[in-house]
Amino acid sequence: MDVARHVLRSEGGTVGLFKGLVPTLAREVPGNAAMFGVYDATKQYLSGGQDTSSLGKGSLILAGGLAGASF
């Protein structure tokens, strides 16, 4: 709360709370889209089809690692 009060006073009011939001969204939105897309595509590739429920932990770790690297 102290930090919020300080930002409200010194950074131009409520606008100061949202400073840097646009660049952050410009990074996060496409990055998350790529990450989830790669994760799902990798799981489907490793399972050989749409049903990915039978994948083991190693396959999920591999898919997650590739997805994180794509971010």
Tally of contiguous helical segments: 4
Rg to the nearest angstrom? 19 Å
How many strand segments?
Answer: 0
Mean pLDDT: 94
Protein structure class: mainly alpha
SS strand fraction: under 5%
Proportion of residues in helical segments: over 70%
Overall spatial form? elongated
- List segments where confidence is low: pLDDT < 50 over at least 5 consecutive residues: none
Please give a structural write-up.
Belongs to the mitochondrial carrier (TC 2.A.29) family. One of its GO terms (cellular component) is mitochondrial membrane. It is found in: Mitochondrion membrane. The protein is mainly α. The protein has one domain. It contains four helices and no strands.
Short description:
The chain is mainly alpha-helical and 71 residues long.
SSE inventory with pairings:
Blueprint (H helix, E strand, L loop, with lengths): L1 H9 L3 H4 L3 H27 L9 H14 L1
Helix pairs in contact: 3-4
Please describe the structure with a list of short key phrases separated by commas or semicolons.
mainly alpha, 4 helices, single chain, 76% helix, 71 residues, 0% strand
